[in-house]
Amino acid sequence: MTAIEKPIQLETYNLLRAALSLFKKSPNELAEAELQQAQTQALNEFKIESRVLNTPEAASVIITDRELQQAYQEIRGRYDSEEAFVGDLEKNRLDKDSLQAALHRQCKVNTVLELVASRAPAVSDADIGIYYHMHPDQFHRPERREACHIFISVNADYAENTPEAALIRAQAIAEKLRKKPHKFADLALKHSECPTALQGGVLGVVSKGTLYPELDEVLFTLKAGEVSDAVKSEIGFHVLLCKSIQKPETLSLAKATPKIRQFMNDRARRACQRAWIAGLATPESEESQ
């Protein structure tokens, strides 16, 4: 089956792809306004793909059975059973043949666009150096801290969670941990009312501005391994542990070069593709619509 035998099903596949991309839902799950948005995107994508496939570049591209089967199996592998796979296709007005036709078309479009992208000029070391010096903020990492907390909420409906009782509980936990900081994970699991209790109270590595301001202010004054007093935020009381401190650093040009080169290469490839697509002739069938 070729990529032009089932235009209705192919556009249906584009609609499915657009709905999943925009809303993470199938077309039949969309509200009317969402469906219209997905239909517009699907139609635009289908028209662009048709122009791509009508180029001399596309005429030289051959999609092998192996490539097609890899694309097909990538989708099939998301389902636990053949029945579930076929059922989902039917719900989206597709079948195996129309899916393979749509995938053949998509693979061919992707290959053509990769061919076009390969024409993008190479990024020079001078280009990289200019980018590095013009975007210094991107290569400066502020001080960060690996933090954990134990959280006691405030809820006047419960005797143990009145503001006074919650503060006393948090202070008692902080006092225990100052003597035995290695018990932090155990006490978090036992006392913390935050879901992070299951991971020992771990908040992760954070920079300033990530946590509540009251917590930030205290966390960034602690030494590595130090436990705070009870800290009040708008939702309750916290006991903080600063596990480690990562000092601020500025990435050198040498270390930043691979990341910049990748970014600039990707940007140049996309620009090359966009310019090429913009220059494609519009088929008469589209002009008449």
From TrEMBL:
<dbReference type="InterPro" id="IPR050245">
    <property type="entry name" value="PrsA_foldase"/>
</dbReference>
<keyword id="KW-0413">Isomerase</keyword>
<feature type="domain" description="PpiC">
    <location>
        <begin position="142"/>
        <end position="244"/>
    </location>
</feature>
<dbReference type="InterPro" id="IPR027304">
    <property type="entry name" value="Trigger_fact/SurA_dom_sf"/>
</dbReference>
<dbReference type="InterPro" id="IPR046357">
    <property type="entry name" value="PPIase_dom_sf"/>
</dbReference>
<protein>
    <recommendedName>
        <fullName>peptidylprolyl isomerase</fullName>
        <ecNumber>5.2.1.8</ecNumber>
    </recommendedName>
</protein>
<comment type="similarity">
    <text>Belongs to the PpiC/parvulin rotamase family.</text>
</comment>
<dbReference type="InterPro" id="IPR000297">
    <property type="entry name" value="PPIase_PpiC"/>
</dbReference>
<dbReference type="InterPro" id="IPR014282">
    <property type="entry name" value="Nitrogen_fix_NifM"/>
</dbReference>
<dbReference type="InterPro" id="IPR023058">
    <property type="entry name" value="PPIase_PpiC_CS"/>
</dbReference>
<dbReference type="Pfam" id="PF00639">
    <property type="entry name" value="Rotamase"/>
</dbReference>
<keyword id="KW-0697">Rotamase</keyword>
